[in-house]
Amino acid sequence: MKRSIMPIPILTFKQLINKVKKLNRRYEQLAASSGENFNIFHILKLQSSETRLHSAFIAELLNPKGTHGLKDEFLKLFLKTLEIKPTDFNTQTATVDIELHVGAIGKNYETGGRIDICIRDTSQRKIIIENKIYAPDQRNQLVRYHNYDNLANLYYLTLDGEKPEETSSGQLKINDHYKLISYKKDILEWLHLCRERAVVQPILRESFTQYINLIKHLTGQTINDYMNEEVASLITENQENLEAAFILYNTLDHACERLLNKLKIEVSEIANELGVEYNFDIDIRFNKRFKGISFYPEGWERLKIAFQFQSYDKDLVFGIARKEVESGALPSIWIITISQRIQANERGVNEWWPFHEACEPYTNWDLYEPWAAIISGEMKRFIKQKVEEILELFKDQKF
């Protein structure tokens, strides 16, 4: 974009920001009065649960025998969204499975596993969906599902249409062996079609609305389309507003980097106050997984207290983590002790985490809320409280 000869006055930025803030406040008031902020999935803390919510909800809609009572209507709309020809799949005879076991994982990791969603017709034609909200890729995961049926339509579903890690896809090629689909585009498009079809069924229609709003939240989209339109109109009102918007957009990373520097100082203060060592490993580019903040209590040789992003800038979790897996299996008494003192949650125990949970409400740093919490000081309080709780619970332990 060609820049103006004269710099844009600071007043223009302030006016644009104030107008957007006024719009936002107005729509916040409308959302509060209309009940739009009420979301059952958020309340039940299911928003990032791949199996318990997302796979289960999607599979139920795709199932011709599902409780929605509309037979294969939603499945046909799904095929239309994915551009699968009706002649290539018999929706009337389809069955849908979630967490389909296809055998034990082989020693070479080329067979076996559990398929998130598998749709089959009576001719055994298959649509296989690997559903990734925040969970990391598993070794040769897509390779194993491709080997299960190399003629199946294999889809890798993520929030934003991200590519899988090579550790999962191996030598498989996008579009040749599998396709990328996203919640942000494909699933939302399908859900809107489904809601239109369910317009005369109020309970079903409102269930779609709740889920659509959740997906918009998870993918960083404004829930209210009308506000989107008003903001777009405001930005394109004149050249100054448009250029100011571009400058603000291009400056956002720099502003967030300043906030990360503020947080790094605060984490250092927390460590000093609690008497523990720490490591701050968050980069504003968010171009690598499993980055975060670690605290090292005195005497803990194999475990640490950690805040870690499971997927770039999303799915921030907190818990007790291993310093390295290569050190061998943890003593079973440690796992038992941790499970006795901390209430179990759906994430369970894995080779890296004897305990971990979602850092609600700050799981997704692609959104405004975590950065606002850094400005207000709430993020520092949140982190310190979490670390203090673990230190108190396990003050008699040397992990």
> Helicity, in percent?
40-55%
- Helix count from the secondary structure assignment: 13
Provide the spatial order of strands within the biggest beta sheet: 1-2-3-4-5
Parts with pLDDT < 50 across at least 5 consecutive residues: 1-5
Following the backbone from N to C, one meets helices and strands in this order, namely: HHHHEEEHEHEHHHHEEEEHEHH
Largest sheet entry: 5 strands, mixed
Strand content: 15-25%
Distance between the termini: 56 Å
Shape call:
globular
Class by helix and strand content?
Answer: alpha+beta
Instruction: Output mean pLDDT.
Output: 89
- Gyration radius over CA: 24 Å
Structure notes:
The chain contains 13 helices and ten strands. It is of the alpha+beta class and 399 residues long. It has a five-stranded mixed β-sheet with strand order 1-2-3-4-5, with helices on both faces. Strands 6-7-8-9-10 form a five-stranded antiparallel β-sheet, covered by helices on one side. β4, α6 (166-169) and β5 (179-182) form a beta-alpha-beta unit. The radius of gyration is 24 Å and the shape is globular. Residues 1-5 have low confidence and may be disordered.
